[in-house]
């Protein structure tokens, strides 16, 4: 699933916010392990902190791997424990062909999902967190005076598209979950394994 994984990372984050465990201005600590994640990253340094709201925006737009680990360690104590919670939530949502072993979607053995499962997850985000879902519609986000563009090109192409998430690794190919609403009808589409960004879009 590549960075489509981060939809579940944010689902659990939204749960924590809804329960009052975390607030949008909560400062999250960056560990050495988080700072060392491969790009795409926000370039966080070990020892610094980032506001939760900035962390969420960095994932929704730039798909920052370092930020995903920051959230995992904050909520789970470790990325491994958080990944176990991600898989448990997947089962609750009916995602029976999914297993998460990290919070970012970087390639790792036994980290997998299906197009159908990812569509279920996207639907759950829209249904369960209508107050947070509009974050996926942001075309850009600025952090430390650097603008980060959303990688979902459909946000610029189709006025009805209002989310959700892109992903890419060499193994997974170019992936996309797109969500579009016209009147009262919403359609969610999942593309996995496309050969290029253009083909994905």
If you had to describe this structure to a student in words, what would you say it looks like?
The chain has 201 residues and is of the alpha+beta class. The chain contains 8 helices and 7 strands, in the order H-E-H-E-H-H-H-H-E-E-H-E-E-E-H. The protein has helices at residues 6-18, 32-35, 52-62, 65-76, 79-92, 115-128, 154-157, 197-200; strands at residues 27-29, 49-51, 140-143, 146-149, 161-169, 173-182, 185-194. It has a 3-stranded antiparallel β-sheet with strand order 5-6-7. A hairpin with a 2-residue loop joins strand 3 and strand 4. The longest helix has 14 residues, at 79-92. The chain is globular.
Short description:
The protein has 201 residues and is of the alpha+beta class. The protein contains 8 helices and 7 strands, in the order H-E-H-E-H-H-H-H-E-E-H-E-E-E-H. The longest helix is centred in the middle third of the chain and has 14 residues, at 79-92.
What is the general shape?
Answer: globular
Give me the side-by-side strand order of the main sheet.
Answer: 5-6-7
> What amount of the residues lies in strands?
15-25%
Largest sheet descriptor: 3 strands, antiparallel
Mean pLDDT: 97
* Total beta-strand segments: 7
Q: What Rg, in angstroms, do the CA atoms define?
A: 15 Å
Helix percentage: 25-40%
Q: Which residue ranges are poorly predicted, with pLDDT under 50 across at least 5 consecutive positions? A: none
Question: Could you state the order of secondary-structure elements as H and E?
Answer: HEHEHHHHEEHEEEH
Distance between the termini: 16 Å
Helix-strand makeup class: alpha+beta
Q: Helix count? A: 8
